[in-house]
């Protein structure tokens, strides 16, 4: 094979390979319901923050693509922004909690009712602080249920 032909064949093979890498995913990644962080300093174990999606109105994030502006999408959007309280992590506190919210004017939570109380008040106050500054993209009067599990996973 002459040099020009071999370079052309090589160019075609590399072009096809690059096209496949860019435009065809090798595998679909599933979005996890869990957030894991590895902390390497001190005696604190790995952090495991689980947001249950089979309770309330939540769904898997991968299914929310066509549901923008729905209660399910708004719950997921909010749950992605709430963080584990640092003071609770330091004390290794865990709890399962649920809240029912009524959406008020301009998407602000008007009524917050605890459905399943938290074991520790720090989670309740953290949730209420986070939801008080959040704007939901839902119509006024809509009622939604937001379940959250605060968990620390230990490798020990």
Automatic annotation (TrEMBL):
SUPFAM superfamilies: TolA/TonB C-terminal domain. It holds the Pfam family TonB_C. InterPro entries: TonB_C. The chain crosses the membrane at residues 6-26. Residues 69-156 form the TonB C-terminal domain. GO terms for biological process: transmembrane transport. PROSITE patterns: TONB_CTD (PS52015). Keywords: Membrane, Receptor, Transmembrane, Transmembrane helix. This is TonB-dependent receptor. It comes from Leptospira langatensis.
